[in-house]
Design goal:
Blueprint: H1 2-20, E1 22-29, H2 34-49, E2 54-60, H3 66-77, E3 83-87, E4 93-95, H4 97-104, E5 107-110, E6 115-117, E7 120-122, E8 125-127, H5 133-152, H6 157-165, E9 169-171, H7 172-177, E10 183-184, H8 188-195, E11 199-202, E12 205-208, E13 215-218, H9 223-231, H10 234-253, H11 259-275, H12 282-300, H13 306-321, H14 334-360, E14 374-379, E15 387-391, E16 394-399, E17 409-416, E18 419-424
Parallel strand pairs: 1-2, 1-13, 2-3, 3-5, 4-6, 5-10, 16-18
Antiparallel strand pairs: 6-9, 7-8, 11-12, 14-15, 14-17, 15-16, 17-18
Helix pairs in contact: 2-3, 2-9, 3-4, 5-6, 10-11, 10-14, 12-13, 12-14, 13-14
Amino acid sequence: MKARLIILLLLFTGARLHAAEKVILIRVDGTINPATAEYIVNSVGIAEKANAAALVIEMNTPGGLLESMRQIVQGILSSSVPVIVYVYPSGSRAGSAGVFITLAANIAAMAPGTNIGAAHPVGGGIGHDTTSVEAVKITNDAAAFIRAIAEKRHRNIVWAENAVRKSISSSEVEALKEGVINLVSPNLDSLLNRVNGMTVETSKGETVLKTAGANVEFVPMNWREEFLGVISDPNITYILMMIGIFGIMFELFNPGSILPGVVGAISLILAFYAFQTLPINYAGLALIIFGIILFIAEVKIVSHGILAIGGVISLFLGSMMLIHSPGQFVTISLSVIISTVLVATVFFLWIVGLGLKAQTRRTETGVEGMVGESGSVISEITPGSPGRVTVHGEIWKATSDERLEPGAQVVVESFSNWVLKVKTKK
């Protein structure tokens, strides 16, 4: 009887231990930006608090920002929970910044039909080559960083450095053969079964992976990470900036509207926040501002369209230059730029023009509105001797610099101290 109880207790304890095994799963599908960095680093913390068997990052990325990538790599290397980077599904890639992240993982895996490589840095991101002195420094720094990662994770150091310096890329089969990754697996279940029992080194020392049959818990981005991800998109940032400019300009030329000013201020603040995470070209930003100034000048100055044309050209070129990165993953869509330039042109030449015209329009109500109105003389007016006129059916005291006989048609020139000054109507 006691033997049976002991066996049941052992089975129950073993079942509980098995049930307690958990794998945290997250998905990165898109560019590496501050939102992605926060998502991955926070997920490492969640996995550590849950005492998970591993954190799996399913990744498909063309690359992204250098600083965001560094934050992710630091989070992975300092994790006490084993981190598995899985380039998945088929057709996915670990390009540019994704190479660093994949190599930093305890286990690097790829699905069939995927590729990895092309990690040459440029400006604030990593993607294409350039020959500037600054780029050479960034390249050397990135090469040293990826060598350190590859050495720590016992991966192919030569391939890793060539991925940075020569932008080489490999398929999953080539990457496995060259010692860049640990294995190729068609799906997550197969991956977890195959890595089960492997020994990896975490910040706490060597750990044996116990992932076979583990419960997989997917952790999505929280609202803050999603919001940061949205506004970090170069297209969204650009649109927010233009909405901010439109709103504030509308409020300035149409005081009292309130809503456009509030929306514009909020949009502009969000855009400037996002600019901190993007490689901004300030020459491009200056061209955009100059283009807006030209639009406003066109409304106030008769230039026969020359200033407006200059504004369109300046705004278009500034928009093209705004994001200083040749990488396709950190750039503004040409269709978005063209649409925004067209909207901006219509906005400043029409909406702002209406506001300026309203400010310079002659007063049409009250006594000031009588200036320019017609009337007739009902009693003689001579210079230095006022008479009376009728305007709008009302009788007014009037003066004039000329002699005016009763019945003469006159026009109101000015109004002062309830006395009209008139002249002969031509």
